[in-house]
Amino acid sequence: MTTTHTLTDEDRANLESLQAQIESSPIGRGQLIPLLQKAQKTLGYLPEEALALVADHLEITRSEVYGVASFYNQFRFNPPGRNPIKVCMGTACHVRGGEIILENFERKLEIKEGETTEDREFSIERVACVGCCALAPVALVSETLHGHMAPSKVEGLVLRVRVEKEKAEREAAKQ
Amino acid sequence: MTAANESIEKIQAAYQALAEEARLQKEQFDQSPLPKIHIGMATCGIASGALETKSAFEEALKERDVEAQVHTVGCVGHCYAEPVVVIDHPDSGFPPILYPEVTPGKAKMLTKLFLQEYDPRFEHIMGAIVENEMIPSVHEFSRFNREKRVIMERCGRIDPEQIHEYLADGGYGALAQALGEAPDAIIDRIEASGLRGRGGAGFPTGVKWKIARAAAGSEKTIICNADEGDPGAYMDRTLLESNPHQVIEGMTIAAFSGGAKKGLFYVRAEYPLAVRILESAIGQARAKGLLGNDILGSGFDFDIDLFQGSGAFVCGEETALIRSVEGYRGMPRHRPPYPVERGLDNRPTVINNVKTLATVPPIIEKGADWFRSIGTVDSPGTAVFSVVGNVTHPGLVEIPMGVTLRELIFDICGGIPNKKQFKAVQIGGPSGGCLSADFLDTPVDFDALTRAGAMMGSGGMVVMDEDACMVDGSRYFLDFTQKESCGKCTFCRIGTRHLLDILRRLTRGEGREGDVEQLENLSRAVKRGSLCGLGKTAPNPVLTSLAYFRDEYEAHIEECRCPGCSCRALTAFYIDLDKCARGCDACVGCCPVDAVFTTSNRKKGIDQALCVKCGECMVACPPDYNAVIKVSPAHLAPTIERPPEKKR
């Protein structure tokens, strides 16, 4: 497993809370996926430490846990950006140019899909159908869905997040 | 009076008490003289801004001091018109009216003009919900009157988070009826109705239940398969978000007749709203005694858990789904034994699709003959399709089986927009096939589609216009199946990879002689050498597009030309200077990579080395000029020298 990140203080605090949640869970092989989901919900991703907690609790090997986690698309091993961008690659979005949208995000943020920007502000993922095919092409920024995407909208979306962040910072500085 | 009759009466009494209470609660809402605003709030509605619309209504109502009830409902399936709002304003004298595309601004306007001043603003109306003499009804549109709703009948009418609305609408009546019957009689009725599994394969549901009933062991499980992995289909999600109780009711009936005590919903974790609504629905059903011990006093115990699938397409396959619930990698295993004999934890397990289960209550209520009167002889009932892609009115459409593709695409969904020509329709997602215009008169049912080379699959239908490239389409689907192959069978694991490599080369203009033959051979080998449905059907997009669009493959290989001008390596954009007004800079301004430039004599050119072929300039160029032209092969585009950058 390749990991390129180190745990932040926030991650460590989350790991502790995860440990408490795991300890109160029942034991059994059927619990593996629900526990991994719980871990990802708590931390946002699955660092080695979280996989180890799950493995020890269920008394199975860590490689077995990693084997299952890496099989499913839902689990990620890199921390997501604060504003994860998910570009839909469903059939309808493909027909209407989803790949062009993905490329535009990649170019704008200078990262590839699956990566996170250095400031951990953005990450790009390609997702299979989010289920709003009538609005294709579709992209999600954080939890907000943007339908009928066009390359010219990409810049605006990224800019909006950055401007809002600056505004929040300025206001925080004022107080 | 016999004991059986007594028990039936007890169940009916328990049910009637619940239904009566629900009806009273619903009547209070219905009969109130206040205006009612129904807003569609499923995922697609929210994506189009239904949340903002809702808060705009609430704000405007408060500001203007108007009293009205805002009622959230599920999705009606008319995705092209989202956010959809129905306003019922009894005092105005108008019937309930459906408004499409209600933005927050429109919401505020309607609050003032319609709710306060009784002017319904005819220019914004789609139609009235019921026939009347004042406003044309929506049922005059073929998008409404050609549909036949069995599965989605209540979607968009009731609030999915309020069980009383389902109960008041006659919901759970089928369950009460079924609990008073012998399980074998129910199975016989389902078998007689000819209901076939809506998950794609079309296996007779009654037969499946019968095997489950006969299977040994008391600990049986029923699983509702809501792992809708097909990119381009979303009807299961919509159904769970708009009317979860109909699925729960169907599942409980299935459990009762098959003898299962435990139920499990396998829902994709990517559907957070569906998961939340389902959880709340299960909780409400439990609280009303419709799930849990001694359901409606019948002595039958049944409860449902929820399992969130982690996103693997192959888990739509029964045995892989079971492995994944057990906590392993979702790899299919050899069948037989089938899951109805040995499934979850080696116990008999019935696995039914969401739509199959949702069809059960109407069949119990209205009978097998009624169901047989809809659709065709071999495929009775209705089918739900998500018709998307290049079509005027995309969305969910429920039609009786046997309607032709032409009727579905052109009459019901409005045909191809922008005066383009129809080229192909892809049915059944990555496992299905592409059908050409010659097949437009094929009726939509399980067998006719399979004969044509496509399949019903989960009901995803993507319409493609003349600009679509069939080679690129196949590449897209192979890209998907190659990633989703679990890796168990060599042919599927390596074969799909090779298919993908060849298709990628073709779309880059690096095709070689013999590629087409190789694609055909490999496809057949993958089909034969794979264990589960994923591998067996993965080459279908390639095989069908080769059968019906072979000339496109040949154009890619021999001329490096993409007939649809879609493969980006084989196309180029240029600006036709005879058409260009030269005065505007729309194309220059919109280019994300600064590839469009202006020369000293105001000519426009595109720097082919920089161009990423996103097509923005084509959209930006005003329709009066339409000066941006797309050509394939790429060398056909005339070159205009870019002037050197001015020194500052």
What does this structure look like?
The complex is a heterodimer of chains A (175) and B (648). Chain A is α+β, with helices and mostly antiparallel strands. Chain A contains seven helices and four strands, in the order H-H-H-H-E-H-H-E-E-E-H. In chain A, helix 3 crosses helix 4 and helix 6 packs across helix 7. The longest helix of chain A has 24 residues, at 151-174. Chain A is globular, with a radius of gyration of 18 Å. The N and C termini of chain A lie far apart (44 Å). With 648 residues, chain B is α/β, with parallel strands linked by helices. In chain B, 40% of the residues lie in helices and 14% in strands. Chain B contains 25 helices and 18 strands. Chain B has a five-stranded mixed beta sheet with strand order 2-1-3-4-5, covered by helices on one side. Chain B has a five-stranded mixed beta sheet with strand order 11-10-14-12-13. In chain B, strands 8-7-6-9 form a four-stranded parallel beta sheet, with helices on both faces. In chain B, a hairpin with a 5-residue loop joins strand 10 (382-389) and strand 11. The mean pLDDT of chain B is 92.
Give a summary of the structure in a few sentences:
With 175 residues, chain A is of the alpha+beta class. Chain A is built from seven helices and four strands; from the N terminus they run ααααβααβββα.
Key phrases:
heterodimer, A: 175 residues, alpha+beta, 7 helices, 10% strand, globular, B: 648 residues, alpha/beta, 5-stranded mixed β-sheet, 18 strands, 40% helix, 14% strand
**Approximate helicity band of chain A:** 40-55%
Strand order of the largest sheet of chain A: 2-1-3-4
Strands of the widest sheet of chain B, in order across it, are 2-1-3-4-5
Number of DSSP strand runs of chain B: 18
Shape of chain B: globular
Mean pLDDT of chain B: 92
How far the N terminus sits from the C terminus of chain A, by CA atoms, comes to 44 Å
- Computed over alpha carbons, the radius of gyration of chain A is 18 Å
Which regions of chain A contain 5 or more consecutive residues with pLDDT less than 50? none
